[in-house]
Amino acid sequence: MILNNLKPLFKSMRDSKLKRVRFPFSMASAVFDVFFFVDEKPFTLMFGAKGHNFYFEVPVKNGFDIDPILDNTVYNTLCKILGLKYDPNQKFSPKIFFQEFDKKVPHTVSAQNVPKPHHVATYRKDVEENDKIYFMGWLDNDIQSHKVNPKNLEKTRKILGYEAYVKCKRKNISSRWTDDESKAIEFYLP
Fold it and tell me: Is the pLDDT of residue 139 over 90?
């Protein structure tokens, strides 16, 4: 399935030199934080349901092509969050969800749409110390003759992006995280 409205969004991101954006999408009774990551291969759409402990990701292949089929667990949870009940006269499918989404994709974005690390970390919980969602800076492991932890590198990649991951791996740097929002700093590349 082609998501045609990702094309102008991607062009706006490229023109603004943005690799990651976040924007809202609502359908039925649900509101989603949607993230579009073009620094991942393939590109990734991430849908996080606000007020629910639920998110899912969809790979976006060349031509803005996605597979509209969702795993049964994801599909059932999505239906529940949307407030849908089985009705043979009102069919619902993931394809309908993505068609509705495609109609509401913004065509332009700005730096205001760039997600903060904690926006992403709120949903991507499959990382080390997932309660620590606020970026707190960098640690040069060479100073204490340590090696960067592979789990920290994975968290860096998933939350901060591929470019941060590559720099950390090459320079032996760890990302630092906290659960205290007052200690958070603005993200910058190492």
Answer: yes
